[in-house]
Amino acid sequence: MNIAIILNGISRKKQFFYKSILPALHKHYAITVFETQYAAHATELARAAASKFATILSAGGDGTLNQVLNGVLTSPNKMLPTLGLIPLGSGNDFAGAIGASASAQQLLQLLNQGGKPTDVGFITCKDLNGNEKQHYFINVCSAGMGPATIKQMEKAPAWMGANLRYLTSIIKTFFTHTPEPVELKTQTWNWRGAVRVLAIANGKSFGNRIYLAPEAKQDDGLFNLFAAGDVPLLKFLLYLQTLKQGSKINDSQIQYELSNKIEITSEQPVAIEAEGELVGFLPATISMKSKLISFLR
Questions:
Q1: Are residues 82 and 188 located together in one domain of the fold?
Q2: Three-state helix/strand/coil letters over 241-288
Q3: What is the pLDDT, as a whole number, of residue 28?
């Protein structure tokens, strides 16, 4: 089996990959490693590799995986390769959802077993000019504090590193973000109000193990929706600790729903993100593509 590995070229765990994971894989498979060299390069690499490799592994965090996913699913190749993950990022939320670790032994076992049918989310939204955009995601997409935190991170200096940039950005977001008015519609549920966090989840967590959807499954054809309305800031900070523990919150201002499709609108230019990547703006329709890909999990 020929395997392509798309490695985040600036990962701080890159040397660990080359010393501990790659040699073990080389003993059993023909491996070609492609290192990313600039923003969104993983998408280009995955799109090109989709027609040449039966298996593509994303070596990085959730953002690298998102780019690899979109590269594969926008390639002209009709036979999709099996995807897999070597979690080398800082958050690794999707890795947590599927129990993946940066272990050569586990990866070899998964490669031997083969991929499992896995759901993928599909976003249709707008860019700043009002043109339609489309984007896939495998873990979580969100509006509210998620995109606001990413915007803060983009302003932070690179020397801080990913972890410190995220920490300082989320602190700033907590004290500067204003809940944004949205309207949500599914086949069975309508909701209108201002949201601090709106998450549409295929995975269990986002933002470095904030468990908005602890019961999510990756092959049930359903999103787990989490909508936190205009919850007072201090109360929401306390709720975050509950979410970190993987527990649900019992509060009339916080909604949990299941759906395979959700429509989100707003009279304001509310941003939407997926796996830490800014995607576009509302209005958006988010649809479940049930068991679209084969994934090593």
A1: no
A2: HHHHCCCCCCCCCEEEEEECEEEEECCCCCEEEECCEEEEEEEEEEEE
A3: 96
Residue in 160, 124, 137 with CA at minimum distance from that of residue 263: 124
pTM of the model: 0.94
Report CA Rg, the chain.
19
Q: Which domain holds residue 53?
A: 2-114
The angle at the Cα of 287, spanning 56 to 184, to the nearest 5 degrees, equals 140
Task: Decide: 193 and 181 in contact? Cβ < 8 Å.
Answer: yes
Closest CA to 31 of 7, 51, 61: 7
pLDDT digits (tens, 9 = 90+) for 56-67: 999 999 999 999
Q: What is the pLDDT of residues 162-180, one digit of tens each?
A: 667 777 887 888 788 999 9
Q: Which of 141, 105, 145, 140 is nearest to 229 (CA)?
A: 145
Residues facing 30 on adjacent strands:
2
86, 114, 142 — which closes off a domain?
A: 114
